[in-house]
Amino acid sequence: MLINNCFCGYIFMNYLLYEFSLCAALALMLFFGGYFLLGKVPDKTIFDNYLRSRQTMGVALLVLSANYLIHFLGGIRFANINAAILMNLSTYFLCYWLFSSALTTLLDRFYLTRKRFTVHLLGWFLFTSLSGFVLLGLAEGVIQQMGLIFMAVWLFVYGFWLARRLILTYRRAVKSFDDTHSDYIAVYVRWMSIFTYWAIIYGVSCGLLTFLPDKYVFLWILSSIPFYIYLFCSYQNYLLFYEQVERVLEMNQDEEGQESGSETSHNIPQFYEGIARNLSKWVEEKAYTQPGFTIEDLARMLNTNRTYLSSYIKNTYHVSFREWITGLRVEYAKQMLREHTDLSVRRISEASGFLSLSYFTKIFAEKEGCSPARWRKKMEEIHQ
Length: 384
Prior knowledge:
79% helix
């Protein structure tokens, strides 16, 4: 009797934890999803893509909220485990697409098309139908278990494929930033990379915990709360920098289209001599210490073409435009640290063209193996 009472108490406590975690996560997801759909953004055309992305993410959160709500109000996991698994698999498959589409759209405004939407929607319908057949149409046994394994593998492969595509889009965007801008624009979109890897771990756990014992489910639900808070805060913070990043992306995409029909690369080297001469004068004038300029700005100053200039920098210095400019700025900062001991590191950072002291310190440490202050002290000790 005592054992039965303890067992019943354990089940009741586990159910309470499950309900509490669902309620907490559901409240946040409903708020975040509703805000993403209805929240205002600046009334500018350039924010249309941000709004499209945020609304797509809002739909994803509300779809997940509907899943949580059915679990919370209907207790479907305890009433019919196979129906609960089917609902979860169908929800996760759809949300994988919505999550990845929302983030990819921020980096590629042409990604979300009607054709792509239709293809993935048909894939979701096929996946849900087959899952329903396996879970509700087949008798329990080896065949059903094999079918479940197949559906789980399908879900994970689909999720990893979407994540890989997003990461590749992110890396192309970062490369584009580095090839065209003197400042570290990629820092504004780094959260997407962090979120994607976090989403992979979270998405895999979603699928796995669909099949695990009930007593562990509340841990996963509680762990989802910081995941959604990070997503919400990242979207809100990104709004502050979105216009700057989107203008860069639009400029780069437009220029790539224009350059695709221009002179081929084997005709470029004949222009190198003039570029080298003009670029040498530009470097001597320390013009690279001016923050915020692009390779397009520099090409206009040198009376040349962006394609030729980019090719010259890559073939001569074997680095991206940003890395080359950063190297020049670090060398200038080292000269300032040696010759102007009365100036603070922050002041030298600004005079060298760096927008952030933390970024200057990070880059300096990567190149010299120590902080700017420590490097200055070492130089003073050497020359004493």
